[in-house]
Amino acid sequence: METNSSGGGSSSGSLGSSSTMILHNAVIVTMDKESRVFRNGGVFVVQDRIKAIGQSADILQQFSQMADQIIDLQSQILLPGFVNTHVHTSQQLAKGIADDVDLMTWLHDRIWPYESNMTEEDSYISTLLCGIELIHSGVTCFAEAGGQHVSEMAKAVELLGLRACLVQSTMDCGEGLPASWAVRTTDDCIQSQKELYAKHHHAADGRIRIWFGIRQIMNATDRLLLETRDMAREFKTGIHMHVAEIPYENQVVMDTRKVDHGTVTFLDKIEFLQNNLLSAHTVWVNHTEIGLLSRAGVKVSHCPASAMRMLGFAPIKEMLHADICVSLGTDGAPSNNRMSIGPFYF
């Protein structure tokens, strides 16, 4: 690597905190509208913004005199950071505690007791460790799937320099809730999310967004669903929810909500399906429900590792053919025991 000093000389150097920088001699995958790829490309960066991209020779000729650093990437690949759309940062310390069990045992006997006993410091450390692993695999932005102590998550995200949509794990009824969670009322759930939005939305120079969360339909009253829907619309923010993870969930919804299929059918009935909904997993859906998701503009987060481990695979091909926006997530650490979204280790 080479670094230009203010006097125009060059010496060995590395990425630092320079206000202006050229990265050159790289294979640059832009992911822009034209899907441009530069085989010998260069980028000119001013502080935290890319100001120009093109062939290395052109970038060097035009911007060398302005650059504090000039770094030769030696034909490495340079591409935008990955976005991991389903992460439980609170679960990073729980690798290995829930192997080889079904989902309901996983939640009720392993994960929720663990999460409910986390301290604020635990959440901060867990988010730091999770974020470091995300960065290592090339992730620069993630969507939190629901956890505890969101303020500590935000503190860690700000320190790490990541972008994130943070969500509180929100439940107000149902089976399996630890004692400290079972006392939460619907009013508590709604008010706490409003307070988190007021405190942290657009924090860290705009890198942090607060979304609203529903952990799953079996632990949410109709009132919580409807008020979360309306609140997200009022605040112009997103909703992150686990949807149609296992057949048992659909059966419970059919029995208790009196619909003919399951979660997606019921959410459509109450007009919860909106274009601000990130629907995690969404495995057990039929053709009609795929159409409902598509028409509403719902986005789906597909987590291949947890799908193989416990849930089954969503009908991704059919979703894509229906023009549903499908993204990729890792889920929490106990779902796959790692956060490696980049190389897709499986």
UniProtKB/TrEMBL annotation:
Spans through the membrane: none
Coiled-coil intervals: none
Keyword vocabulary terms for this entry: Hydrolase
InterPro entries on file: Amidohydro-rel (IPR006680), Metal-dep_hydrolase_composite (IPR011059), Metal_Hydrolase (IPR032466), MTA/SAH_deaminase (IPR050287)
Gene3D superfamilies: Metal-dependent hydrolases, Urease, subunit C, domain 1
Any one GO MF annotation of this record: hydrolase activity, acting on carbon-nitrogen (but not peptide) bonds
Domain Amidohydrolase-related: 77-340
Designated name of the protein: Amidohydrolase-related domain-containing protein
Species: Citrus sinensis
